[in-house]
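Design a sequence for this backbone.
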């Protein structure tokens, strides 16, 4: 889907699996991460993603800018540009990691709260 085919009031999400396979879906700014997981599960691209199929929508997690999104977070709350494509990772995971678990480990080791000077990205 090219940029000119994305409605101006929608957000095109290019979802990347751990395997590197991608698929694009169009959503509204009011759609939440949980809504997206259900939609993707219900419309799973069998031909392309058959090997990555999951047992239920609730274990699908979105990662945006290196952070897991809670199911209640909407695309609009993230400030994503309308009519454009945004890339996110889609991973199967039963539970979200504890908030700041990495920061707590670093602090307990006497290190700083960031791992490095650059932004981290989970792939």
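Sequence:
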């Amino acid at each position: 889907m090219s940029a000119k085919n994305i409605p101006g009031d929608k957000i095109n999400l290019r979802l990347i699996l751990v395997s590197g396979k991608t698929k694009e879906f169009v959503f509204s700014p009011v759609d939440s991460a949980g809504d997206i997981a259900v939609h993707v599960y219900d419309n799973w691209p069998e031909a392309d993603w058959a090997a990555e199929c999951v047992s239920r929508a609730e274990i699908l997690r979105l990662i945006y800018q290196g952070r897991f999104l809670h199911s209640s977070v909407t695309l609009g709350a993230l400030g994503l540009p309308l009519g454009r494509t945004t890339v996110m990772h889609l991973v199967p995971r039963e539970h979200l990691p504890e908030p700041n678990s990495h920061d707590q480990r670093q602090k307990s080791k006497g290190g700083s709260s960031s791992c490095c000077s650059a932004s981290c990205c989970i792939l």
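The beta strands are 11-16, 22-27, 60-64, 67-68, 85-92.
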